[in-house]
């Protein structure tokens, strides 16, 4: 049995949508896309990155905050819920007393690929995040055992793929000492 897609006319309708369940959704082209809970591996990778980013921010005194997948990012007319978002202190202040929906691009977004999100993470979100000015976008792919760092250059991403024991090179965290295997082994 195929479910009928739930269409949402406006962002305000999305913000006020309640289907009486605890299901999480992203708004994509005016349609709600259910975001099922991640696997234990998916959540372990998110947790590792949150901790490592937090420690790097503390060590370097950066005016940033890592956030888990409860913070949403508006991309044109879409609302995306990245697995990890590194936001500025100003962005954190702007959502302190309201819904955690960013209307400006965070410096860094991380998506962890799952079987149902391959095209969305590599193609749709890559173009959406570049269009709104996300400077650095990581695609962590446990299915292919790789991590892709996308850096924004003149409106599009230059992609670098990291595998195995290669240290991940990050513009946001230049002193980070983390390799792909550590991330994928979380």
TrEMBL record:
InterPro entries: Nuclease_put_TT1808 (IPR012296), Restrct_endonuc-II-like (IPR011335), Uma2 (IPR008538). It holds the Pfam family Uma2. Transmembrane segments: none annotated. Keywords: Endonuclease, Hydrolase, Nuclease. The keyword Hydrolase applies. Residues 11-180 form the Putative restriction endonuclease domain. GO terms for molecular function: endonuclease activity. The keyword Hydrolase applies. This is Uma2 family endonuclease. It comes from Plectonema radiosum NIES-515. The lineage of its organism: Bacteria, Bacillati, Cyanobacteriota, Cyanophyceae, Oscillatoriophycideae.
